[in-house]
Amino acid sequence: MAEASYQTILVKKENGLTTITFNRPEKRNAMSPQLHSDMYRALNELRYDKDTRVIVLTGAGESFCAGQDLKQYFMEMDSQPDSVRDEVRRMSRLWRNEIIRTLPQPVIARINGWCFGGAFTIVTACDIAIAAEDAVFGLSEVNFGNFPGGEVTRVLTEQIQPKHALFYALTGKTLTAKEAERIGLITKAVPRAELDKEVREIANNLLDKDPIALKAVKEAWYYTFYSSPEVAYEISGLVSERIKHEHGGRPGIKQFAEKQYRPGLGAYKWEK
Ligand code: COA
Hints:
The two termini are 17 Å apart. Helix 1 (33-46) links the parallel strand 2 (17-22) and strand 3. Helix 1 packs parallel to helix 3 and helix 9 (211-225) runs antiparallel to helix 10. The radius of gyration is 19 Å and the shape is globular. By secondary structure, the chain is an alpha/beta fold. It has a six-stranded mixed β-sheet, sandwiched between helices. It has a four-stranded mixed β-sheet with strand order 4-6-8-9. It has two domains: 9-207, 2-enoyl-CoA Hydratase, Chain A, domain 1 (Alpha-Beta Complex); 211-265. Helix content is 46%, strand content 16%. Bound molecules: coenzyme A. The site of coenzyme A (COA) has 15 residues, from helix 2 and strand 6.
């Protein structure tokens, strides 16, 4: 697939790994309407890109993402017609929620710096989130007389204990990456010097895995979460049947039976 060009993000493809970089460093990568549109388009294109098996999201410069662009997303939108505002909101919500969750590829957040407000929903949407230890997080909305809007409050009530997330929503205090790890906002905080190595190692692990299986893990995970137990069980059964069909059998288990590898210690050899 030819690499498309975007105004506010960079997309780099390398041997199955596609890195998307928020590229407004002079605005600390705040999410403008254009950035929402670019992300919406880029992720929808990557969904069908067979050369993209793992996606990393990161930020240019010293910031991961400073949240919504307070000028362009709020002040300037106030004077736009409802139709324009609704469309921007729609794209803003979708790429940081359903689209990332329903992408067949795993998505890793590589949090290199500032991460505020609406950027929390990027972190919560990504399947895995790794931060440099000196990255700074904050639910700063209360500091400008507001609250964590859009889907921020909803996803945090879903993913984090209230005594943790509500504390930061009320106080607007910043938190360190280690604290973000402790409360379950991110997967892991690592020394800055090891950020790339850690992300690369996880990406390599995922690149080694059968994409059919990775897609199924995500489907089972998220559909189970959002379903009643009996619906979740049915979905699990349907996904399982589809995998068997897509594989034309059970190649991973066959290789195990033939003593070709040990699944406890690594992935089977799948056909690329
Ligand atoms: N929206 C719009 N512009 C933003 C922005 C945001 N969320 N965050 C930073 N910027 C812009 C600043 O307005 C400034 O632009 P200018 O040079 O045209 O004046 C530029 O980015 C640099 O910001 P600055 O504050 O000078 O950078 P800093 O490195 O000293 O501080 C932050 C970085 C992230 C701590 C600080 O910019 C900040 O608090 N931003 C707001 C974060 C926030 O509350 N986000 C929640 C939004 S939902």
